[in-house]
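Feature request, filed as a ticket because there's no other form

It would be nice if the structure record came with a short human-readable summary line next to the tokens. Right now we just get the raw output. Example of a typical job, pasted below so the devs can see what we mean:
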Amino acid sequence: MKLQIDNLDGHGLRDYTTAIDGSRSPKLMRRLNKPAELQFSLLADGPDFVVPASGARVMLGKTNGQDVFTGYLRQSPLFEYLGWGQRGPVYRYNLVAQSDESALDSKRLPNRSPFIDRGGGSALRQLTEDLLPGTFDTSAMQDVDTLLRYPVDPQKTWSQHAAEIALQTAGSYRAIGGALTFSPVGSTAHAISQTDPDFSPGGLSLQSSDGLLNDVTVVGLTEPQDHVKDYFVGNGLSLTFYLSQNPFNRPGRTLLDEEYGGTALNPARWTAADPASAITVVNGKLQIAGGTGVDGQSTLVFAERIELGGALVLQHGDVAFTGASNGVLGGLYPNTISVAGCLAGFRVSPSGGQSTIQALVSGVVTGTPISTVAGFHYALTTRFYATEIYRRRQIFHSAGHPAGSGFGGNAVAADLRVVLEVHTTDPANAATLIAASTVLYDGLLENVSGFCAYGLVNALNLNCIIPFTRMFQPVDAEVRSALPGQGYRTRLVGSQTEGAECLLLSSAALQFFPENVPALNELIQVQYRGLGRSMARVTDPVSIAAQQNGNDDGVRGLVREVKTPAPRTSADCENAALAILSDAGGAAWSGEYMIWSDFWPDGAADIFPGDAVNVSVASRAAGFQAIVRVVEIEIRDLRAEHSFYKIQFADAAAAPLDFEFQTGTVVLPLSLTSMTVAQVGALFLPDLTSAEITLATSTTVNVDAGVSPVSGGGIEVRWTDFGWGQDNDRNLAGRFSTQAFTLPRLAAVQNYFLRQFDNATPPRYSRYTTALHLKYPL
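Raw output as currently delivered:
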């Protein structure tokens, strides 16, 4: 082997092989999804010896050119005094180098929006390019599996992010020789077999324990639960209306706050296709001047996809037009960027020397256009409200369900209410700053795709200036109202200076601005999700029955609070429980194998953490596959390249590879529904997301459940949200076999709780309740 070090002093690589202290063998430590570490000691081997400096490049390789380790010294050598020699004091220089990713770890990650619906390898490659563009060869990085949402924390290093991404996608990364690889765990396999003539029985130690589980409870994050609709009526005076439940609210997150500083677009935020050079950054503003005239050629697209779930506000900017324009601003595109492929956006068309702005929905312009005026500003905003918060289930892996075939990951269907608004301001008239916005479109789009691209600009021939673009998640609630004799319209929630009409307060209250006080007898509807802790209990009846013996009921159970991958809903908790049970079907194996490199069965093939080992030792009743966690290499003879390997491995039952657990203080409810592995995904009926009150009198309330009951089933209505089932009628308001029905009204403030059920034995019910809260005067 050869040890070379570049001290970055302009002299390039120096050969330090003869300077290695023969009394201390170099040791290389490789750990799964962590930087590798090389420890070695040097002795001055001549008058030209140069003490390696902190930051020096270290390369250890075989004579055939195969790299064993490449990295950097991350600290100065430790001087160990040995005595006095002919040329003065003599030292042993003890050094520690870390593998190549340490160069990335020394850089600060930029502030960027979360990765959405993106391959793990793609995200890791992007982080690499953000820090050291063009430095690493990333061609061998596979996507492995999908990250639904992954926020980038600048307080963490690149390798910390790489470890988290690997955990969530069942992958492993490696950095060596200036190249990065990212591949599924276990994609390279080795054999440890007692039939191998070079097998070392004395070097193999195995541990087996009882890893059986058949009753697993998983606790996840706070989730959206009840589908709540609160109904109020205005009296011409009241500005505040108190909600019946605390709304589920994702932590307030600004996904994008772009002020267009500097002289160029930030590549971590934007991807530009601009053959006409029409899109530039000038004096802190985005300037669009022209285009190719061809739809979809000159575009500016946000770097990440948008999840069409919950509530989202996209402020495309306070646009000032500098000439007649043709194109689309603020478009959402499920597929390609084109006018016809636009789900929702603002269609700008030339009109003489000025332009018109019109709503573009599902590729078709609709509604009344707005004509622009020279010198005026037009703040374009898209708001959407989806009936589901999350549009795809979290993905969980196990040994039997690796990357690409994990539990979960299925799409969640949802409808989307889209509101396109324009806030017109005249710089010469301050009163226009708080004037109401003009709503160009307010409609419901059914069963839309879960993710889309955000194209801020699709310029056929646009001429305008955009000073900012923002994207943020407000409270996941939709506010609508209807004046007497008129239809419902969406009330804009947010800042008054942005043309909004009301706010949702942290005290679970709806607050209208004085200029927007609800009129007498104006009907108000607030739609949102209640909240609760996600959890699920899943059992394996076959395994339980097999373990029953005398007084032993056969149950082998535990409760786990999963930190990563985070179960966001109870359905996610069910899939996480399936993954845990999949790995816990019997014995849990771990072990260690010590062997000389000369006798390693794969010969020249090196072994790395993340590789699989197939252990087959019949004399120890051992036959299993495990994943290598740590590889320790002690290089005993550099000249002859003899090394001593210590390989530590474990299967998922012994040491979970796809989960990170944490200790919590969650109190499990006494009524937590237990289900079998066969019932996961089939135990609950769809929620009544579209149920609503259609008419309220002083004595009755008409309800439309939104769907027709299944044959032999119906809609169950209760006065309080508990006791669901055919055996409990104490708080029952009624069971109905029709979609529309009438309920008694007993007070000015009345609550109704609905779930649907079928004719199974026992009947299946909706997972979550629909809560209808009415506060109308009698």
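Something like this underneath would help us a lot:
Residues 570-583 form the longest helix (14 residues).
DSSP finds five helices and 54 strands in the chain.
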